[in-house]
TrEMBL record:
Main localisation: membrane
Membrane-protein topology: Lipid-anchor
Signal peptide positions (record): 1-20
Domain Outer membrane protein assembly factor BamE: 31-101
Protein's name in the database: Outer membrane protein assembly factor BamE
Length: 118
């Protein structure tokens, strides 16, 4: 009798563990999703207003230096089949409300160093 109960419990455990991949888990995106083509629209000496128009509001502005903006995006995958977790960052620095430097995980366009006014 004990062997039969143990066999039933073992079989149920194996069957339930096989169903673990069937549970749907959602992806959790956080931050500003930036498209590569939007980042390529950035030019040196663009104003803060122009940057907000192109990329939207930053996730974070430096509390001590209002001339540094951070755009962060993180994707936490619910299931491994949909890919790996990833994080992208873009930092924009301004002087006199105009872009002076852009760093991060995105490729800038070749025309970045040419201001829009020219």
């Amino acid at each position: 009798m004990k062997f039969k109960n143990l066999l039933v419990i073992l079989t149920a455990t194996i069957m339930l563990s096989a169903c673990a991949d069937w549970i749907f888990r959602i992806d959790i995106p956080q931050g500003n999703f930036l498209d590569e083509k939007d980042v390529k629209k950035l030019r040196i000496e663009m104003t803060k207003e122009q940057v907000v128009y192109v990329l939207g509001k930053p996730v974070l502005e430096d509390a001590f230096d209002h001339d540094t903006w951070y755009y962060l995006y993180q994707m936490k995958r619910g299931m491994k089949q949909r890919g790996e977790d990833f994080r992208k960052e873009l930092t924009i620095k301004f002087v006199d409300d105009k872009i002076t430097e852009v760093t991060g995980d995105f490729e800038l366009s070749e025309e970045f160093s040419i201001p829009l006014d020219q």
